[in-house]
Amino acid sequence: MRLQILGSAGAEFPGFNPPAFLIDDQLLLDAGTIGAVLNEEEQWKIRDIFVTHSHLDHIRSIPALADNIIMKNLKHTVKVHSTHEVITALRDHLFNGIIWPDFTSLPNEEDPVISYAIIEPYKKYVLKGYTVDAIPVNHTVPAVGYRVKSGGKTIVYTGDTGPTEEIWKYCSGADALIVEVSFPNNMENLAQITKHLTSSMLVDELGKITSLPKRILITHPKPQYYDIIRREIECLGIDGIELLHDGSVYEI
Ligand SMILES: [Zn+2]
Ligand SMILES: [Zn+2]
Asked: What spacing in Å lies between the alpha carbon of 47 and ligand 1's midpoint?
């Protein structure tokens, strides 16, 4: 799998965009960043978006993508996959005809720009050669992480999470784990309240994995503390661990 980091920050500053991970040009994990970095042709290739949770930094580029698609008025539907809670939030609070148009009925109900696909946690979904599982994690709103398998390779993405349990059972021996560290160690109190991780909290979490993934790619750092978090991650001395930056591409 070709993994392209469109955004990997826990906030927004020049050069630091919210999370979005593009697999093989077509399958997107979270949608914090699309149009800011992909040209029209590249945006066109995205057909499936898997959303971890309803927080704005993980969904905010879907409205602009929908707007770009409808401009061409072709029969082109992007499927947004997530849990019932997240889809309900998108329907009620984003594509509600007030904040943004309801693109599930535009330009018409037969060929809408956006369609929703509800995912049940722990159930396997097969699409276009990928097997995808959603696993609940521990955040301030209902949230899942995803395991994506294709061609004998496995990528696991936690989304935003504080200390959690279930998803680590799906990580053992994975080729890549994308996991969040939002705060430096001296802000652990805030990490606990907001259900995120620090580097030292991550160590406890990784201890729950039987066989560590080959790559451990850290996402969602607060840009104001990027250098401190990078140093704290380096100090862990764990093989294959690195802090992501936007624009990187990995062959997994
Ligand atoms: Zn969040
Ligand atoms: Zn977030």
From this structure: 23
- Cα(70) to centroid(ligand 2), Å: 27
Q: Give the span between the Cα atoms of 137 and 122, in whole angstroms.
A: 12
Helix (H, G, I), strand (E, B) or coil at 220: coil
Please give the span between the terminal C-alpha atoms of the chain, in angstroms, as a whole number. 5
Q: How many other C-beta atoms are found inside a 10 Å radius of the C-beta of residue 231? A: 12
**Closest-CA residue to 243 (of 189, 187, 184):** 184
Residue-wise burial string across 191-209, b where 16 or more C-beta atoms lie within 10 A, e elsewhere: beeebbbbbebbeebbeeb
| CA 128 to centroid of ligand 1, rounded, Å | 28
As given in the structure block, the two tokens for residue 18 are 């919210």
**What separation in Å is there between the alpha carbon of 110 and the centre of ligand 1?**
33
Q: Residue 131: in which H helix or E strand, if any? A: strand 130-136
Q: Which domains does the chain have, with CATH numbers?
A: 2-251 (3.60.15.10)
How far, in Å, is the centroid of ligand 1 from the Cα of 119?
19
Residue 83 Cα to ligand 2 midpoint, Å, equals 17
Note the pTM of the prediction, 2 decimals: 0.97
Given pLDDT bands bounded at 50, 70 and 90, which one contains residue 70?
A: very high
Residue ranges with CB less than 5 Å from ion ligand 1: 55, 160
Please, which pLDDT band fits residue 72 given cuts at 50, 70 and 90?
confident
Residues 6+ apart with CB under 8 A from 212: 206, 238, 239, 240
Cα 239 to ligand 2 centroid, rounded to whole Å: 26
Q: Which residues pair with 183 in a beta bridge?
A: 198
Instruction: Report how far ligand 2's centroid is from the alpha carbon of 76 (Å).
Output: 28
